[in-house]
Specification:
Strand content: 5-15%
Number of strands: 5
Number of helices: 10
Structural class: alpha/beta
Largest sheet: 5 strands, parallel
Distance between the termini: 36 Å
Length: about 210
């Protein structure tokens, strides 16, 4: 059961006012979204520090952070900068919750990569709509990150000679020219080429080139 729930979308709420966190949690539940609240930026960062590898590769499920701009201690903007340093990026879209006086700060954060900002008091439906859109982007970013990790593992499985053959294959060279350049037989090139295709999980040189380009 725990493995299943770990993959469900999660919305993180960081606001020093308990009444705000409770209201947001209720609102999200009304749209069948799970949430976890934190009373401070420090508490949220402590949660990340307690994770294996200090949050490396996190989140691994679609996630979004609703973050108050002004809080005692570390501000929301400071936490956002720390998250950038951690490399969380697009996997955790950040929506700032801001009062009217903090709008310029929130706009600056959006330019730095935050997903959006919402002024208090906010429209419930509009806010949850933005959260759901952010969760879609998070899912896409996580899928892309996992795909990159799989590609890196495939590359690591190649021998040095297979990498040499692959480099010439993606340049469009036929087996005969590859054999000439590497001073090996055409049959040996064919064997290495077949192994490269198998390990990289492709069926053609064009597919291999597209994979490496992407």
């Amino acid at each position: 059961m725990q493995q299943t729930t770990a993959k469900l979308p999660m919305v993180y709420l960081v606001d020093d006012e308990e009444v705000v966190r409770d209201a947001l949690a209720w609102l999200l539940r009304s749209r069948r979204l799970l949430s976890e609240g934190f009373p401070s930026a420090e508490a949220f960062e402590a949660m990340l520090d307690q994770r294996p590898g200090q949050g490396a590769g996190w989140p691994d499920a679609p996630s979004c952070l609703l973050l108050d701009v002004r809080m005692p201690g570390m501000s929301g903007l400071a936490l956002f900068e720390r998250l950038i340093e951690r490399g969380v990026g697009a996997a955790l879209p950040v929506i700032f919750l801001t009062g009217h006086g903090d709008v310029p700060t929130a706009v600056a954060a959006v330019k730095r990569g935050a997903y959006d900002f919402v002024e208090k008091p906010f429209s419930d439906n509009a806010l949850v709509d933005r959260v759901e859109q952010a969760l879609v982007l998070s899912a896409q970013a996580i899928a892309a990150r996992q795909s990159e990790g799989q590609l890196a593992q495939r590359m690591a499985d190649l021998t040095e000679r297979e990498r040499e053959v692959m480099a010439l294959v993606v340049q469009g060279l036929p087996n005969k020219l590859i054999a000439d350049q590497l001073h090996i037989s055409v049959r040996t090139v064919e064997v290495h080429r077949a192994r490269v295709f198998e390990k990289m999980n492709v069926k053609s040189a064009v597919e291999l080139s597209n994979l490496l380009r992407d």
